[in-house]
Amino acid sequence: MTDPLAGLGYVHNRLVRHSAESDAAVPLLAAPGARLVAMAGERIVLANGSALLDPERIAAPGPTLFLGRLDGAPVFAAALAPERAEAFDAEPDLATNDLRSFAAEGSVAPHELGLVATAKSLLAWHARNRFCANCGARTELAAGGYRRDCGSCDTHHFPRTDPVVIMLITRGDRCLLGRSPRFKEAMYSCLAGFLEPGETIEAAVRRETFEEVGIRVGAVTYHASQPWPFPASLMIGCVAEALDEAITLDPVELTDARWLTRDDMSAMIAGTHPEGLTVPPPMAIAHLLMRAFVDGTA
Questions:
Q1: β-strands 233-242, 162-171: how paired?
Q2: Is the predicted pLDDT of residue 2 greater than 70, yes or no?
Q3: pLDDT computed for residue 1 by the predictor
Q4: Is there a contact between 257 and 265 (Cβ–Cβ < 8 Å)?
Q5: N or C, which terminus of the chain has less Cβ within 10 Å?
Q6: What interhelical angle do 285-295 and 262-270 show, nearest 10?
Q7: Minimal CA–CA distance to 98: which of 120, 114, 75?
């Protein structure tokens, strides 16, 4: 049976995660068979095309995070100085790549993408949470990296994930896509926005849609989700039914929004649209939602 999420980036992960509640001892980086995921700034370090490195090959100066085990072997993560990327790129068997290109190129096993997403999100959280939000004292890495502890007020801090709704708005045989100022030229995608405190997924879909394009939404259906390590979000993919179709654009969020037919969408996915309109790559959940609409499964 074909995996409907086969081309989606970061969703597959064979890592048996360590846990903040686990009593299991954290192994040493020098443990037999250990592997290291290293980020030089925002670039992943690769050895012969793989993100799983021999720790002896990469000098990691700071504390490493214990992510868990892959096929029984311990896996760690480390943050390196951004300027080291240039030296790695000069090595014959090493290279660096940004995470979006790393996922879009599809040159590694899908489960490595998910493992790298875990490493990137945890490393980013540690970099932003070195002090206690309760008392301001310095915190220390604990539970192998799945927690930070404050020695001053005994507060435990746990990594957070920021939920984001991303929705394909449909009305009959048409769907609505928008263009953010950040997008490359001619690319359109699904609307999206962060959930707010005390808000359901459905309410967030309706609020974000109305704020960005002035359209009321009725039924909301969950479709799929995707970890998005920029720095640590969870994209919650939904399909929503529009109750009207008059667009009132929020010019701060979008430069354009338009209704498109299934034929339009099919051409955009194929790269043959007469206006040159394009969509996000297959590794993005927006692409998955659009393809489901074209196939009639959304």
A1: parallel
A2: no
A3: 55
A4: no
A5: N
A6: 130
A7: 120
Per this entry, what is the length of the chain? 298
- Convert the pLDDT of each residue in 70-111 to its tens digit: 999 999 999 999 999 999 999 999 999 999 998 988 878 899
Q: Phi/psi of residue 18, each to 5°?
A: -75, 165
b/e map 210-223, b = 16+ CB within 10 Å: eebbebebeebeeb
Task: Report the C-alpha dihedral over residues 77, 17, 121, 50, rounded to 10 degrees.
Answer: 50
Separation between Cα atoms, residue 217 and residue 75, nearest integer Å: 44
Distance separating alpha carbons of residues 173 and 154, to the nearest angstrom? 56
The confidence score (pLDDT) of residue 73 equals 97
| Backbone torsions φ then ψ of 267, nearest 5 degrees | -65, -40
Give the model's pLDDT for residue 191. 98
Write the secondary structure of the chain as one string of H (helix), E (strand) and C (coil): CCCCCCCCCCCCCCCEECCCCCCCCCCCCCCCCCEEEEEECCEEEEECCECCECCCCCCCCCCCEEEEEECCEEEEEEEECCCHHHHHHCCCCEEEEEHHHHHHHCCCCHHHHHHHHHHHHHHHHHHHCCECCCCCCEEEEEHHHCEEEECCCCCEECCCCEEEEEEEEEECCEEEEEECCCCCCCECECEEEECCCCCCHHHHHHHHHHHHHCCCEEEEEEEEEEEECCCCEEEEEEEEEECCCCCCCCCCCCCEEEEEEHHHHHHHHHCCCCCCCECCCCCCHHHHHHHHHHHCCC
Q: How far apart are CA 210 and CA 165, in angstroms?
A: 13
Taking the C-alpha atoms of residue 186 and residue 180, their distance in angstroms, rounded to an integer, is 10
Q: Are strands 73-80 and 35-40 parallel, antiparallel or unpaired?
A: parallel
Residues of the chain above pLDDT 90, percent: 90
